[in-house]
Amino acid sequence: MARGTGGWDESDVRVRPNKKGSRPRTKDRPAHEDAVTGRIITVDRGRYTAIVDEDTPQERIVTAARARELRRTPVVAGDLVALVGDVSGAPDSLARLVRVNERATLLRRSADDTDPVERVVVANADQLVIVVAAANPEPRTGFIDRALVAAYDAGISPLLCITKADLKDPADLLANYEHLDLEVIISRTAQAEDTGVDSESDDGLSARLAGNAVEALHEHLLGRVSVLVGHSGVGKSTLVNALTGSRRATGGVNAVTGRGRHTSSSALALKVNDSPSGSWIIDTPGIRSFGLAHVDPDRILNAFPDLEPGTEACERGCRHDNEAVNCGLDAWVESGQAGAAGPARLASLRRLLGSGMRTENRAHAKELGSQ
Ligand SMILES: Nc1nc2c(ncn2[C@@H]2O[C@H](COP(=O)(O)OP(=O)(O)OP(=O)(O)O)[C@@H](O)[C@H]2O)c(=O)[nH]1
Ligand SMILES: [Zn+2]
C-alpha cells in the first residue's frame, strides 16, 4: 500500500546530531557491534547456556555470565541474546551476555494466585503443549484451564496432548472442550498391530508409544518453538525423549545440549528430531501449575470462548464470579448453549475468577513483577 505522505526517500530523514557524541569514547557504553546472537537453552545458577550459529557447521554451545548492564532483566530459555567476549564455546570459556532481544511472546506465571510477583517462564514460544494423562494420574480440568488462560494471555497457541489413552478412554475429559477450537493429540502405548516408538522416561522407565501418536505430535512441532507443561507422571519425559532423542536417565547425552548431565529443575530447550531449523521443544520440569495473579479477569474469560458470549447479558461491571448477581453466564449455561459440559466449565471459570487477586492489588503487582 502506498504511504499517505507519498514519495519519501532516505534524504527526507534528518539525522539529529548526538548530544553525547562529543564525550570521550571510554564513557560510552560499548555498542557490542561484534556481538553474536545465541538462543538460550537453559539457565542454571547464574550460568546461561546458549546455542550459537544454530544449524550451521559452526554451531556450538556457549556458556555465558550476565553483564552488569543487564541489571535485573530476566533471561530465560528461549530468549535470543547478544553475546560478546569469548564466544568460542571452548571448554571453560565464558562469554558475556549483554542484551536480550525483543521477545515475540513471554510465558509467565506467579507462584500462586495471590503472589504479586510474576515469573518469566519461557520466551519466544509459539505453542504451549498441555500434557495430561487420561488416567494415572487422573486428569484435572483445573490445570488445563489454567494453562489455557496462560497461553491465551501470552498469545501462544495451545495444544492439548492426552497421554495414556490405553488406560482409559479420554472421551469424558474431551467433552469439556468440544466447544473450543482446541487442537488435541491423543497418545497411548502401542498395541500389537501398531508400529511403536520405544522411549524411556527420565526415570529410566521404558514405554512403547503408538507411532501414529508420536508422529501426530511431531508434525505439530515442525518449525515452531513449543513449550511443554504437565504434572509429574503424565508421560511428558517419555514423549519428549521420543521426539528429541534425549535420554537423560540412561546417561545418554543430547548432542546439542548435554541433557545427560542436566540435573537442575529449570526449563531446557531441546531440538526436535528430523525437523526444519527452528523446531524446539522446551521442557519445563519446574512448572506444574500456573498461578494467574498476573492475568486480568477479562483475559481469563478469553480462555472460555464457549461461555464468553453469555456475558453480553451481564450488567456493566459484572465480575461473573460466584458472588455476581444476575450474571448472564447462569442463563447461558442453563439454556444449554454451552453444551453438556457447560456447568462444569462455568464452575471452572468461577474457580479461576474467584481465586485471583482483586483489581486493586494488580497495579502494585505489575510494578513488582516487572523486575
Ligand atoms: N500406559 C501408559 N504408560 C505410559 C505412557 N506414556 C508414558 N507412560 C509411563 O508412565 C510413567 C511416567 O512417565 P514419565 O515420562 O516419567 O512421566 P513424566 O511426566 O515425565 O513424569 P516426571 O518425570 O515425574 O516429570 C512411565 O512408567 C512411563 O513409561 C502411555 O501412553 N501409556
Ligand atoms: Zn456476568
Short description:
Belongs to the TRAFAC class YlqF/YawG GTPase family. RsgA subfamily. InterPro entries: G_CP_dom, P-loop_NTPase, Ribosome_biogen_GTPase_RsgA, RsgA_GTPase_dom. By secondary structure, the protein is an alpha/beta fold.
What does this structure look like?
- It is a single chain.
- The chain has 371 residues and is α/β, with parallel strands linked by helices.
- It has 3 domains: 36-100, Beta Barrel (OB fold (Dihydrolipoamide Acetyltransferase, E2P)), CATH 2.40.50.140; 106-283, Rossmann fold; 304-360, no CATH class.
- Helix content is 21%, strand content 23%.
- It has helices at residues 141-154, 171-175, 211-221, 236-244, 297-302, 328-334, 342-355, 359-369; strands at 36-44, 47-52, 60-66, 80-85, 95-100, 106-110, 118-123, 127-133, 157-163, 183-186, 196-200, 206-210, 225-230, 268-271, 280-283.
- It is globular and about 65 Å long.
- The chain starts with 35 loop residues before the first strand and ends with a helix.
- The chain binds guanosine-5'-triphosphate and zinc ion (ZN).
